[in-house]
Specification:
The protein is built from 6 helices and 12 strands.
Length: about 240
């Protein structure tokens, strides 16, 4: 299955890989990546954060949400793809800062299950006081209803959804940060500092450790939450 870009043009926070937008492509704010292997990555941007939906053969995985209060915008973003909330089997936060998990309780209320990594357990309620201070519509996450797994078990879990890939602990941004790397080459890293920052990080450092862990899997495309994507496939590594 070849890589097919479904949206081009200037989109804030994402560097498109084409110069024209052809008929039938989704509107700005959505982008689809197809590559070899199972899984289809759809970028959903309906606020300040790039979030991603991975379509699996037996269930979809949503990676990150935006801030609390953005549910109507989320509905609008998934509509061009024919996605319904009931199609989403699990939601995974790359970390529990407020702009990455604000819709999780509302999605859980609608039947989406939370995929919680073992390394994230202590951070689930990190943003509760922020949402309370801002008086946003947010109910604390009920982590007792989550599927809690170790990163070492993530490949088997994703396989149960018909998705080929694994989830890695990448704690340089925050202790609970994780990255999802698909066998097709797409790698979602959340708020991890861009690989270019390594030039300012000589020698051993947590950021270098994270990137080395990712680069060993030979990703083809790095998908960030707030900065332009990085295409890796033409780089000699």
């Amino acid at each position: 299955m070849r890589c097919l870009t479904a949206q081009a043009g200037s989109v804030p926070g994402l560097c498109p890989s084409g110069n024209t937008r052809s008929r039938g492509q989704p509107p700005h704010g959505t982008q689809t990546y197809r590559r070899r292997g199972r899984g289809r990555t759809i970028r959903l941007r309906y606020g300040n954060t790039n979030t991603y939906l991975i379509r699996g053969n037996r269930g979809d995985l949503l990676v990150d949400t935006d801030y609390a209060g953005t549910l109507p915008a989320f509905y609008k973003a998934i509509k061009p793809h024919g996605i319904r909330v009931r199609d989403i089997a699990y939601v995974l936060a790359t970390h529990y800062h407020p702009d990455h998990m604000g819709l999780i309780p509302e999605l859980m209320h609608q039947g989406v299950k939370l995929l919680l990594m073992e390394t994230q357990r202590d951070s689930v309620h990190f943003s509760d006081p922020i949402f309370a201070r801002d008086r946003l519509p947010f109910a604390p996450i009920d982590e007792t209803a989550a599927a809690v797994i170790r990163c070492a078990d993530s490949r088997g879990f994703l396989e149960s959804l018909g998705i080929e890939g694994e989830i890695l602990s990448t704690p340089s941004h925050s202790p609970d940060s994780v990255s999802l790397i698909l066998d097709c080459g797409d790698c979602i890293v959340g708020d991890m500092e861009p690989i270019e920052y390594l030039d300012a990080c000589p020698g051993a450092c947590p950021l270098r450790d994270d990137w080395e862990r990712i680069l060993r899997r030979r990703p083809k495309r790095i998908l960030y939450a707030h900065v332009n994507e990085r295409v890796m496939e033409n780089e000699g590594r």
